[in-house]
TrEMBL record:
Its EC number is 2.4.1.-. PANTHER family: GLYCOSYLTRANSFERASE. It is an enzyme of class 2 (transferase). This is Glycosyltransferase. GO terms for molecular function: UDP-glucosyltransferase activity. The keyword Glycosyltransferase applies.
Length: 478
């Protein structure tokens, strides 16, 4: 049997590492001819959490980890000016270590190297692949429409030469059905401190890859996927949804999890609205008060993951709240006892799978969207950071798969979403027989069909594997 190896290069940080490892596992479960080496860059600030790496290293011999040395991160000030530029520069400074690791750990073995799999921020490693004469694949953790946005950036930059502005007219971007208003653009597109230009460069580099792997399915993003049938765009492989259904990757406190699941067991079917805002979502006190009032006035039961901003301006992750009585409106906890539950980090996938959940107020991170579609739970959109505004726009306007709470909200902007807006959106979200709910249920079935034999993503992953194996049967590129 012909065998081959792949080298995966994830961006440092738990979210990217988790998605990359999920894909590695997905690939290995489908085809045992591969072995995978994952190159681990150190996190720039916080000590790297290696528990996920250790558990996979212990349980799966087909995945090998190579820990790269620490490099000096760019100055901290750059992080506050543009997270995107900071990460891009940090990853770039790993280039020589990555090249050396590939030579020493992959090219020196007898197993042929079928390609590098680099994630979103690691487009500079496509150059390393060129230098070594090895094919490269981008593993894109966002969705297909946003990938189309990134492809559009260099074209637009060539014409306009400057970042987007809040006062710009709507932008017609091929991967979106409707023109995008500036409020729906990701913050990086407006960033003058290097965020925008970093993404222009990533978008340009992606076009030199041998393939693009996206965690989506063609039935969900048919418009975006068909916008790629164009000369010069590498083959696109839609291989999702890849969902960590056992919640292994993001497990939190086990006792808290049991209490949450027990509480949900006691609630009527489809009666609870779940509020949860991703790994970096947090709110200041005035916003938490408005949310509490909005929820109470909606009259619906709720499970609400409340997290507070870290004290170091966002370098560390948000923290769970300890003094809820002081933060929330007076007597809110008493009045909502039995109707609502507040938690910290939530076992999100298990919660969305629970029959008591009827709706999800979400920050629209792409994993959260896929998880909620999988379980047929409609979303009310409340984007916060990264590309979540674009995701919210696509879900509400392009796909009719979500209720609009906000599309243009940006974390840290100082804007307040008032109680009335939350009340109205939650009432609309929880309607039993809404058009959105019907469409979400249909998409849920399609998402499950996509990944089983005969499904679109199953077939797409098969094509990817064929292409990768073909790399080791033909002479390597010059
Ligand atoms: N998540 C979770 N509990 C929480 C918050 C998030 O389990 O309290 C998980 C969620 O299920 C998803 C991931 O963390 O798998 C968040 O990914 P997403 O792409 O939605 O957002 P990000 O954190 O990257 O902004």
């Amino acid at each position: 049997m012909k065998r081959a190896q792949l080298v995966f290069i994830p961006t440092p940080g738990m979210g990217h590492l988790a998605s990359t490892l999920a894909f590695a596992k997905h690939l290995l479960d489908r085809d045992d001819r591969f072995s995978i080496t994952v190159l681990i860059m150190k996190a720039a600030f916080a000590p790297t959490n290696h528990s996920l790496v250790q558990s996979i290293a212990a349980s799966d011999t087909r995945v090998r980890f190579v820990h790269l040395p620490q490099v000096d991160p760019p100055p901290k000030e750059l992080f506050f000016k543009s997270v995107e530029k900071f990460i891009t520069e940090y990853v770039e400074s790993y280039r020589s270590h990555v090249k050396e690791a590939i030579i020493n750990h992959a090219l020196s073995t007898s197993l042929p190297l079928a390609g590098l799999v680099v994630d979103l921020f690691c487009s500079s490693m496509i150059d390393v692949a060129h230098e070594l004469g090895v094919p490269s694949y981008v593993f894109f953790t966002g969705n297909a429409a946003f990938f189309g946005f990134m492809l559009y950036l260099p074209t637009r930059h060539h014409q306009v030469g400057i970042e987007f502005r809040e006062t710009d007219p709507e932008s017609a971007i091929p991967s979106y059905v409707n023109p995008l208003p500036p409020g729906a653009l990701p913050s990086l597109a407006l960033n003058k401190e290097g965020g925008y230009i970093s993404f222009v460069n990533h978008g340009r580099k992606y076009q030199e890859a041998d393939g693009i792997i996206i965690n989506t399915f063609s039935e969900l993003e048919s418009h975006a996927v068909s916008s790629f049938f164009n000369d010069g765009i590498p083959p696109i492989y839609t291989v999702g949804p890849m969902i960590d259904l056992k919640g292994k990757t993001h497990s939190g406190d086990n006792q808290a999890k049991q209490e949450i699941m027990k509480w949900l067991d006691d609630q009527p079917p489809s009666s609870v609205v779940f509020l949860c805002f991703g790994s970096r979502g947090s709110f200041v006190e005035p916003q938490l008060k408005e949310t509490a009032l909005g929820l109470e006035r909606s009259g619906h039961r709720f499970l609400w993951s409340v997290r507070l901003p870290s004290r170091d301006d966002g370098l560390a992750k948000p923290t769970d709240a300890e003094n809820l009585e002081e933060i929330l409106p007076p007597a809110f906890l008493e009045r909502t006892r039995g109707i609502g539950m507040i938690c910290g980090w939530a076992p999100q996938v298990e919660v969305l799978a629970h029959k008591a959940i009827g709706g999800f107020v979400s920050h629209c991170g792409w994993n959260s969207i896929l998880e909620s579609l999988w379980h047929g739970v409609p979303i009310a959109t409340w984007p916060l950071y990264a590309e979540q505004q674009t995701n919210a726009f696509q879900m509400v306007r392009d796909l009719g798969l979500a209720v609009e709470l906000k599309i243009n909200y940006r974390l840290g902007s100082g804007a307040l979403v008032i109680a009335e807006e939350i009340e109205k959106a939650v009432k609309c979200l929880m309607e039993g027989d809404s058009e959105v709910r019907k469409r979400v249920k249909e998409m849920s079935e399609k998402s499950r069909e996509a990944v089983i034999e005969g499904g679109s993503s199953y077939a797409s992953l098969g094509r990817l594997i064929e292409a990768m194996m073909a790399n080791v049967t033909v002479p390597a590129r010059k």
